[in-house]
Amino acid sequence: MTGWLHHLIIAPILLPLLASALMLAFDERRRVLKRWLSLGASALLIVNAAALLWFTSDAGTGAVGPQVYLLGNWPAPFGIVLVVDRLSALMLLLTNVLGFTSLFYALARWDRSGPRFHALFLLLLMGVNGAFLTGDIFNLFVFFEVLLAASYGLILHGSGTERTSASLHYITINIAASLLFLIGVALIYSVTGTLNMADLATRIARTDPGDLALLEAGAAILGVAFLVKAGIWPLSFWLPRTYAAAAPPVAALFAIMTKVGIYVILRLSFLLFGEASGDAAGFANDGLLYGGLATMVFGVIGILSARQLTRVAGHYVLVSSGTLLAGLGIGGQALIAALLFYLVSSTLAVSALYLIIEPVERNADEEDMIAGVAEPVFDDEYVGAIEEEEDETGVVIPGTIAILGGGFIFCALLLAGLPPLSGFIAKFAIIDALLRAGSVGPMNWTLIGLIIVSGLATMIVMTRAGIDLLWTPGEDAPSRLSLVEVAPIGLLLAVCLALMLWAGPVMAYLEATSVALHDPAGYLAAVANAAPAGGTRP
Questions:
Q1: 67 bridge partner residues
Q2: Reduced to 3 states, what is the DSSP secondary structure of residue 505?
Q3: Angle made by CA atoms 143, 148, 153, in degrees to the nearest 5
Q4: Which pLDDT value is given to residue 92?
Q5: Which of the four pLDDT bands, split at 50, 70 and 90, describes residue 70?
Q6: DSSP type of residue 243
Q7: Disulfide: which of 184, 204, 327, 512 matches 339 by Cβ 3.0-4.6 Å?
């Protein structure tokens, strides 16, 4: 990437920042203008992310491989660097697709439930994009704080006792995690003298054996901060309740939040504790494995015991995080590629589910739903069946029920991992990689069993919820469903359908991404060889 194309790397940070700052110049009565600004910015972010993915892959006609942007024109490790490679470009595209669809859905009414919604939404996108792009651990902390500060405002968007209570828990746990983040960063810096990721990768292998324990302690504390955000058990108690209390478009975007923690663990595990890291190689793999399996068990129990669809979705997020963490603990190029496919598919499906839950449960009072205090439940058994003697011939399914029912079934199949959709392809690829490993141990079989059980539990609960909330005859006519609500749900499900239809090329991209993660030489060389513009320091 040369010339103006090189500035595409910083655009995912600057574009939402400038758009949100511009919105603050207008009062809340200029709602239409703010909507167009935020939608335009989020649409441009998708185009930008797609371009970065193109240029960092073999399909790009320019430079191939990781690309580096030197902020302040200072070379690494002295200056701040942004790095985009296959993995970060993939996460950028996924984030901004979720951002656009969630923002579009919010136009139905949710952006009017509180002030500064669009500015906070774009600041959250800026923080998440920056976390995926930064090549420096301290600036990773900065972007984490930006996205968390914006998420505090968004999680409180609206009103209601339940939302406020859950938000306070969310804010408290994340402030504690931020403190751990700083402690871990300080310990790592005291040993290595640097926080640039590429520079750390070269210094860790040369760490004095006497300092190795301090380095691993810092990495462990840092890892706990990331694992809190990823939702690992037993640090996941806040997640289902918080996501259930959030407004639907906010919860749909929050589906990517746990994946930020997963991304950082994935990035640092291979970059700092890979095979070339000497005595520190493979640090905490066992912890990730056992913690991930425990998280899956907790998520499955939560899915089976949940009485609200929002709680089902929240516990499925935990199952997804547990699957990814356990897979990372086992490792292997084929398994990492399959996990990345699962990450994309499950995140899209959960986001679509959060958007579809609210219209499905719209029999509740509309004002209470906006306030977040009404949580319709589905019954433990099917009690609304049509009487056997009733003539069902000629019964017309209302358009709203048909659309919602079709989307709900699609989400259920995706989350359960039933063929032929992308959820099945992802789980099949994970199981295949686990069985093809050099030695198939008991942990491989445990993970396979939990993947199957979690899919079965999800299918049971989603079927029960669909019968009670959608297909049980009711006295009232179905609520009106607007195009603004249907379009983003359809877009997310269409992307999942595209993952199924083009699973081969997508998996090929992810396999190349896995190879690059296992051999970070290209990443390290790109950062080390990035020359300032003009060849001299400013």
A1: 84
A2: helix
A3: 135
A4: 95
A5: confident
A6: H
A7: 327
Comparing C-alpha atoms, which of 476, 465, 475, 477 is closest to residue 382?
Answer: 465
For 103-135, the pLDDT digits (tens) are 999 888 787 877 788 889 999 999 999 999 998
Q: List the structure tokens of 511.
A: 């396999």
pTM: predicted TM-score of the whole model, two decimal places: 0.89
Mean pLDDT of 342-348: 94
382-422 per-position pLDDT tens digit = 333 334 344 444 444 456 677 778 888 898 999 998 888 99
Reading the block at residue 227, the tokens are 């694992």
Residue in the structure block whose two tokens are 């289902």 = 240
Question: Which DSSP state fits 196?
Answer: B
The predicted pLDDT at position 135 comes to 87
The phi, psi pair for 96, rounded to 5°, reads -80, -25
Over the range 341-360, which residues count as b (16 or more CB within 10 Å of their CB) and which as e? bbbbbbbbbbbbbbbbbbbb
Rounded CA separation 300/306 (Å): 10
**Which band of pLDDT confidence, cut at 50, 70 and 90, is reported for residue 204?**
confident
SS3 assignment, position 69 = strand
The H or E element spanning position 228 is helix 209-230
> Which residue type does 307 have?
R
Q: Which residues pair with 84 in a beta bridge?
A: 67
Other Cβ atoms less than 10 A from the Cβ of 143: the count is: 21
Q: What are the extents of the domains in the chain?
A: 3-380+399-535
The residue assigned the tokens 């902390």 is 141
- DSSP secondary structure code for residue 468 in this structure: I
Candidates 250, 18, 258, 73; CA nearest to 155 is 250
Phi first, then psi: give them for residue 532, nearest 5 degrees. -60, 155
Residues 460, 464, 470, 471, CA torsion sign: positive
- Cβ–Cβ < 8 Å for 8, 51: yes
Q: Are 155 and 170 in contact (CB under 8 A)?
A: yes
Whole-number mean pLDDT of the chain? Answer: 83
- Strand-pairing partners, residue 83, are 68
Instruction: Give residue 230's identity as a one-letter amino acid code.
Output: A
Cα 306 to Cα 257, 310, 351, 464, 469: the distances in Å are 22, 9, 18, 11, 15
Q: Where are the alpha helices (DSSP H) in 417-535?
A: 422-435, 442-466, 483-501, 503-518, 521-528
* Element holding 70 (H helix, E strand): strand 67-70
Beta bridge partners of 239: none
CA-CA distance, 219 to 203, in Å (whole number)?
Answer: 14
The per-residue pLDDT for 276 is 65
- Residue carrying structure tokens 């997020």: 317
Residue 307 has pLDDT above 90, yes or no: no
What is the 3-class SS of 420-435, one letter each residue?
Answer: CCHHHHHHHHHHHHHH
What is the identity of the amino acid at 117?
F
Name the DSSP class of 470: I
* DSSP assignments along 72-134, one per residue: GGPPTTTS-EEEE-HHHHHHHHHHHHHHHHHHHHHTTTGGGSSTTHHHHHHHHHHHHHHHHHB
